[in-house]
């Protein structure tokens, strides 16, 4: 949201030029120093400890860094097998960077034609929703990480195609892009107290449904394929 807000404001209102090179370098400068230091530190961790359990706990997360550190450097580590990922949790950094780069095209569309920018953003959001549902149906996946994933191969499929997949994460990102645009377009929009209360209640209810609707799964009944597809499509 802030990305599109400040970029469109920078060009449309402040009448300044959109410098793509500076746009990319700014993000890299914010991420690279700390991120690269963490990767380097991760490679050094196995040399800093010992004990019967130390190396066992290091295998999954740290040891792949010795061989596959370059995937993190290039922000593409989310496209590889979980066991070959340096620091599994850094998938988010790669996904965020990839979506940031894609957003350049969308922001350029906004600066050229606001309707075109909105249309492209909505299209990406819809594609993300359809992809999440279709991949869940095609591979018979659970829509979220649950205790049902006892098989490592099933966990890998879920992680690769849904959890750490850039397209499946694109929906919320470009919803934020649209809201940033709306804040520029209508900065003085007024929402009545009644509507605010309704929106907060709907928001809280939706969050509650996302979290608690799965509590009955595997306890009372196993969800149908349709339920799984709908949940996977809309959960994010």
UniProtKB/TrEMBL annotation:
**Superkingdom:** Eukaryota
Give the GO molecular function terms: acyltransferase activity, transferring groups other than amino-acyl groups
Q: Which UniProt keywords apply?
A: Membrane, Transmembrane, Transmembrane helix
Domain called Acyltransferase: residue spans: 8-234
What residues form the membrane-spanning segments? 34-54, 91-111, 118-139, 159-183, 195-218
Q: What is this protein called?
A: Acyltransferase 3 domain-containing protein
Species in which this protein is naturally found:
Trichonephila clavata (Joro spider)
- Which classification does the entry list for the species? Eukaryota, Metazoa, Ecdysozoa, Arthropoda, Chelicerata
């Amino acid at each position: 949201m802030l990305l599109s807000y400040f970029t469109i404001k920078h060009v449309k209102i402040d009448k300044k030029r959109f410098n793509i090179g500076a746009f990319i370098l700014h993000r890299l400068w914010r991420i690279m120093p700390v991120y690269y230091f963490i990767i380097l530190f991760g490679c050094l961790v196995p040399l800093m400890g010992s004990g019967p359990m130390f190396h066992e706990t290091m295998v999954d997360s740290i040891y792949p860094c010795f061989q596959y550190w370059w995937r993190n450097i290039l922000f593409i580590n989310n496209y590889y097998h979980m066991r070959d990922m340096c620091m599994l949790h850094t998938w988010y950094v790669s996904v965020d960077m990839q979506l940031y780069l894609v957003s350049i095209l969308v922001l350029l569309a906004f600066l050229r034609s606001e309707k075109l920018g909105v249309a492209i953003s909505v299209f990406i959001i819809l594609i993300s929703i359809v992809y999440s549902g279709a991949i869940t149906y095609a591979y018979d996946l659970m829509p979220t990480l649950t205790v049902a994933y006892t098989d490592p191969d099933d966990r890998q499929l879920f992680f690769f195609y849904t959890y750490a997949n850039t397209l499946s994460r694109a929906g919320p990102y470009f919803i934020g892009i649209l809201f940033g645009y709306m804040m520029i377009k209508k900065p003085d929009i007024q929402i009545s107290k009644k509507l605010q209360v309704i929106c907060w209640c709907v928001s809280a209810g939706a969050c509650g449904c996302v979290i608690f609707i799965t509590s009955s799964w595997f306890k009372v009944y196993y969800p149908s394929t349709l339920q799984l597809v709908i949940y996977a499509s809309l959960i994010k």
